[in-house]
Amino acid sequence: MERGFSFAPEKCIQCHACAVACKSWRELEPKVRYRWVENIWQGSYPEIRCVSSTIACKQCDDPPCVAVCPEDAISKRLENGIVVVNAEACSGCQACLGACPDAIPQFGADGKMQKCDLCLGRIDLGSEEPPCVATCPTKALGFLRSEVE
Amino acid sequence: MAQNNQSEPFTLEHARRVAARNGEEVVPGFCAMCGPGPNACGIYAFVKDGRFLRVAGMAESPVNRGGLCPKAHAAPQWVYSPDRLKYPLKRIGEKGEGKFERISWDEAIQIVADTLKRQKAAYGPESLAILSPALRSYSDYLRRFLTVHGSPNYGHSGICAMQRAFAFMYTLGDWPGPELGKSDLIIYWGRQPIYSGAAAPSPKLLVGAKARGAKIIAIKPSMEPDAGMADIWLPLRPGTDAALALAMLHVVVGEDLIDAAFVEQWCFGFPQLKAHVQKFSPEWAEGITGVGAQQIRDVARLYATTPRASIDLGNGVEHAPSSNDAIRAVAILIAITGHLDRPGGNLFGGPFGVPSTMPLPQDISLRERFTQEMVDKLVGPEFPRPFQPFVEGLSSAYYRILDSVLTEKPYPIRTIIAPGTQPSVSTRGSKRVLEALKNLEFYVVVDVARTADMAYADIVIPTATPYESDHPFDGRGGWLMARNKIIEPLGDYKSTYEFFLDLGVAMGYGADFWHGSMREAMEAQMQPFGMTLDELRQHPVGITYEPLPRTYENYAKVFQRRSPRLSGAPFLPQGKVAIYNTSFEAEGFSPLPEWREPPESLTGTPELTGQYPLLLSDYHTSKNYTASWQRNLPLLRELEPHPLLHIHPETASVRGISQGDWVIVDSPHCSIRVKAELFPGIRPDTVMVLHGWWQGCGELGMEDMPLLAGGANVNAMYSVEEGKAYDPLITAMTSQTLVEVRRA
Ligand code: SF4
Ligand code: SF4
Ligand code: SF4
């Protein structure tokens, strides 16, 4: 069963709860973030709108970060589709950061790459949702489980 | 592709399982990060070895249904902040120096009681004022203490909620809330439906209305995310809501888009209104509000001709000298277009959601003891004396209390108790406020953490956060739950409630303060529920009461409602909508809504615009901070580390200002130093900042900011000139001025 997020921008109120819930539950150090929220402008004043986006690792099908890593420290777990980092093998070269289209990889005090792992090992992926999803007041952010054919 | 996207809701059972997995305990409770106001969301608090670790949203709570906002998650950082006050303090240095010595809780109570007794004997009980924080569940204890002491000087902000309540109730007999769940058109006017309680019902109602296909209109100077979700945005100049509302009245009256039968049967003074609004054309309003005349016409027509249309009027309209007129003009608009107490319109019963079958707790405010003498003694009435007391009781305006220390008019306040509020950043005129604090005889700060003006305090009383307290119980939105202590208090302190009980006993007022027993105080208030606190505690996620069935068109009943004035005179003397307001007229105020310029504005003071060509106003709420608090919490500070100036990219570029530049904003009254955020969704003639900046964040290496020049305290920027800067009926201090912006 593959896991991932769904996001309905028309329901997102840009409250940033998902980002902060993640930081709290994952006890992330300052400056390190596995999820953040962005405001995107469309048009110009007065014909202007803004929409929201919440951003975390997409657990890409064919992850460029995995391909670029010289230490083979990143791998995609086939049974659940989660892209995981082996911190012991990571040398902190940050090649993945340059390869990732969303600049997801984070580097804290230990210098190792870290990012969203869908809370692997922390929640029951079969029946529970991660804290970022659980906190979302409007259910703009959802958790998907899909059978791979 | 098979999908199973249903996850288990975060119920108590689920929370217990998650806790057990991590070797933790779970305690159900209330979030306290933006209240406890009307938004008390249910939480599960996770605790290990007596340490509060993190929270999750309570699925069983009808308020938040499992969701939580970012502030909620920062609770443990708030509780364990290095800024917490751990024991009572007594000043040993000069006022403002910030030198204190540690004393015990009992000593602190004794010093406060001795001072109050002495001053009461020498100057009368009215020499004491208590400043009100935002609505708190301890607010009634402050009022009770004042009333027993004999002082009417409850210092209400003058800029929040009661301003709308006043104008609405003296026009419609009620403050009708929008029935958002049924509206086909919703006007969010000066309202921030997201940030004030992001996990509470209002954002869900907005999202739900959009999904249903309802049309959304936002009226505010800058495009926050809620305005981004709207179909139509009216970017009006700050402080010009009254002009816009008057022009909308001009359109609906002039084009006969009114509910003639309703007006005939239930309104008083429509002919006078008809003549009066002729001069307020959309073209006239365009010059003042900056909103195009055609857009004003379109929106007025759309509202008037959509049967199920509601207006959600927010706090944004409570900060201008014309506030009372803006609010009553909107009230009149709701009424004459047939949207009052009709499905999908604005319904009687108050703005805070659907009334339920839940009884109200026993009122402990002692309002029955108010006397005319107390009304006469108000040091600076928030509403003119003939309209006192109002629904929350007697009140002086927060700022006027401080001002009396300097003017000694009509007499100087001698002691101010400030529980959960910081006058130097929470009200306008920060410069004068600091001067007043310096000259004040006795200043008592009651708070959980270091405050902006604590250096001026004579006594500092530390208090428990609600996470360290097992009272009070709370009943919100038809949901009643006991409060559980999540962790033991971290220092030598008690709760704010217990402070007022202990002080009451020390003053000799024990009989009125349950002889100092918090349990008795709780049981007395629990009586209407027909159960004890222990019985309520047996319900770990509280009790949810059924909503009351909705009824409509309750005009005959509501229009007869008596006001809380000592005379009990009705709000509406004619038993009809007071379009022409004889109550106001009798006291020398305009019977019909008028337009009044802010003290400084583009159209009101053109002579200033050479030096100060831009309008400045501020945001009252934010996604990550509550008022002037919480900048010290890393989880929240990281979202917005610096005070930002929202400035249109073109306005910035002609001044050589780039994204992220530090800039100086000069007004005729002060200057602030903030960081420019080029913000395409703001009127090019307007710049805005968030209010309440002073606090550093030690954990992120960020220092406190000055309270006056060089800091980012926007409240120092506005005029407080008597006769110009406030609304004559409801205080509503201005939050508009003119500025210039330059690179720092
Ligand atoms: S880190 Fe970037 S590249 Fe790697 S899986 Fe996540 S989104 Fe894809
Ligand atoms: S799934 Fe877990 S790690 Fe990923 S963003 Fe959500 S809370 Fe953070
Ligand atoms: S919690 Fe939900 S609504 Fe809030 S920012 Fe995240 S996705 Fe958007």
Structural notes for this entry:
The complex is a heterodimer of chains A (about 150) and B (about 750). With about 150 residues, chain A is an alpha+beta fold. Chain A has a single domain (about 1-140), classed as 2-Layer Sandwich (Alpha-Beta Plaits), CATH 3.30.70.20. Chain A contains four helices and eight strands. Chain A has a two-stranded antiparallel ribbon. Chain A has a two-stranded antiparallel sheet with strand order 2-3. A two-stranded antiparallel sheet of chain A has the order 4-5. In chain A, strand 4 (about 75) and strand 5 form a beta hairpin. Chain B is about 30% helix and about 15% strand. With about 750 residues, chain B is α/β, with parallel strands linked by helices. In chain B, the strands form seven sheets. Chain B has an eight-stranded mixed beta sheet with strand order 5-4-18-17-16-6-7-15. In chain B, a hairpin with a 2-residue loop joins strand 19 (about 475) and strand 20 (about 480). Chain B has 25 helices and 28 strands. Chain B folds into four domains: about 10-80, Single Sheet (N-terminal domain of TfIIb), CATH 2.20.25.90; about 90-155 and about 360-470 and about 480-545, Rossmann fold (3-Layer(aba) Sandwich), CATH 3.40.50; about 175-355 and about 560-585, Dimethylsulfoxide Reductase, domain 2 (3-Layer(aba) Sandwich), CATH 3.40.228.10; about 605-744, Beta Barrel (Barwin-like endoglucanases). Classes of the chains: A alpha+beta (about 150), B alpha/beta (about 750). Chains A and B meet through helix 1, strand 2, strand 3, helix 4 and strand 8 of A and strand 3, helix 2, helix 7, helix 8 and helix 24 of B. The complex binds iron/sulfur cluster (3 copies). One iron/sulfur cluster (SF4) binds near residues 58 and 65 of chain A.
